[in-house]
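Q: What does the assembly look like in three dimensions?
Context provided by user:
Components: two
Sequences:
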Amino acid sequence: MIERLNKAFESRVRLGIMAVLAVNDWVDHARLKELLNVTDGNLASHLAALEELKYVQVRKRFVGKRPNTSYRATVTGAKAFRAHLDAIERLIPRT
Amino acid sequence: MTQNDPAQELAHIRGLMERSTRFLSLSGLSGVVAGVVALGGATLARHHITAALATGMDTLTYGTTRGQVPADDLRLTLLMDAVLVLVVALLGAFWFTWRRGRRTGQHLWDASARRLLVNLAVPLGAGGVFCLALLYYGLPGLVAPATLVFYGLALFNAGKYTLDEIRWLGLSELVLGLLALCWLEAALLFWAIGFGVLHIFYGGLMYLRHERGTAHP
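A: Here is the predicted structure of the complete assembly.
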């Protein structure tokens, strides 16, 4: 059962990112940072890893004069996240 | 491997998902339908009220100085008109939102939906009781502005938990309601703009911005 856990989600931050993106459309960097309570650098590196895996989609644009980067889960990412959740769920002994 | 206790892990994920969610499945089309229905209802009401005004009806109490107008009949007609508009508009809202939720695969009855409904229902419920009291005390002329004000407050409040357009719609309804209080003789016109035109406008805006051509992952 344990091998069904996705290695990409071993990090709590990555799992958190996917959790937020699974239920939200386009979330920007600042909001993710606020929700996950992590530093910019930490968040950026995890997002880069998820982007590499094609689990998240990135959108850069300007809001007024300030650059704004938003993310959303791809279909692949959402599926992987759900599969991972199911795997965790199966690890919990039924009471 | 830093896999924590799976139960804890799940709780953490669940918390994040709830905290981060706004109710995004609200369909703009439900606003458009509500607007069209409201315009129809307002036209009907206008027909009856104009006839009554012509015979000297008071704009605040809808009573008559000459005793010729069957004011009770008018009140009953308007009440039924209002109830009908409300029911059809609500059915439309649920139908389109349900349909959209099914398409995007989002659960309709989740924490965000509950939060949205509670924040909507509290000011709206208070407004409903307030309006019934106005009718009871014989002040039907204040009902149209009061519905606009309370509906505006409810939307302004609930807007925090759903699409941003709802907050702006609420603010607009609120302003219209306050304006209607200043021009009671035109209250129905303000009501028609608020519940008809604004619903269609913001509903259409929401549809174009969030629904047309967007496929959720």
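Follow-up: The two ends of chain A are 19 Å apart (CA to CA).
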